[in-house]
Specification:
By secondary structure, the chain is mostly helical. It contains 9 helices and 2 strands. Helix content is 74%, strand content 2%. It has a two-stranded antiparallel sheet with strand order 1-2. Strand 1 and strand 2 form a beta hairpin.
Length: 241
């Protein structure tokens, strides 16, 4: 493969970006002991400092920028891995690209929406609004953007996971078949199961479960690139050296 070192370096940069996004998610979503979920409302929001939400947005912006560098290389890798005249391969690669772009947009979009909802609830908590009215006003503002938020979320998770599983299953990606489970869609399901527990540590950890799927998928792609054969120019250069 041409420029293998640069590709691996960029994909590692993308993994660093995902790690920053995981940390950003935890900064804004570790609600702690005693939190009660009511729809989208978290009872511990009023106890959380404004700084946590501000820091989360800053970290998210940095993380998603670095992630772009890595996922862009991933798209190029799949384009070189596909069979150029294979109709299904071309559709899968295009689906992955759509999902990757949707993921870049949706993470900041979703993170921003939920943080704004938390800040709205936190500020209204000190007013005369109480109980059901407080929840209704807070969730009511979110419902205006709920459809695009969840649409982008579903597309970003499913559209990268399905092509990744396809290429892993048919052996086009040079990674163990077990790695087919290392994708955001599977980790979305794991996260939802973990949230059914009563342990707040587990529930808080599961808030970033989908991002762990992205991280492992990026790691699998890096392993694949490291195993790809050199192209003719690379081999000639090594012989000359």
């Amino acid at each position: 493969m041409r420029n293998r070192g640069r590709v691996i370096k960029n994909m590692l940069m993308g993994m660093v970006g995902v790690c920053i996004c995981i940390a950003a998610t935890w900064v804004s979503s570790l609600y702690g002991k005693g939190n009660v979920t009511n729809g989208y409302i978290q009872s511990n929001w009023p106890k959380m400092s404004f700084f946590r939400f501000e820091l989360s947005i800053i970290m998210s912006s940095i993380g998603i920028t670095l992630y772009y560098v890595g996922i862009n290389e991933y798209i190029k890798v799949l384009k070189t891995t596909r069979r150029r005249r294979g109709y299904f391969d071309n559709r899968m690669t295009k689906l992955f690209e759509i999902g990757a772009i949707a993921g870049l947009i949706s993470y900041l979009f979703i993170q921003g929406c939920f943080i704004m909802m938390a800040l709205t609830y936190k500020q209204l908590y000190t007013t005369s609004l109480m109980g059901a009215d407080l929840i209704s006003v807070t969730e009511g503002t979110f419902y205006y953007v709920a459809i695009p938020v969840f649409a982008f979320y579903v597309i970003s998770v499913a559209a990268v996971s399905i092509p990744y599983m396809y290429y892993t299953y048919i052996g086009r990606l040079k990674i163990p078949k077990l790695f087919i489970l290392f994708n955001p869609l599977v980790f979305l399901g794991i996260g939802e199961l973990l949230k059914l527990t009563k342990n707040h540590y587990v529930i808080d950890f599961a808030s970033a479960s989908v991002l762990f799927g992205f991280l492992l998928m990026m790691a699998a792609g890096t392993i694949h690139v490291s195993k790809m054969p050199d192209d003719k120019r690379e081999r000639r250069r090594r012989v000359d050296d």
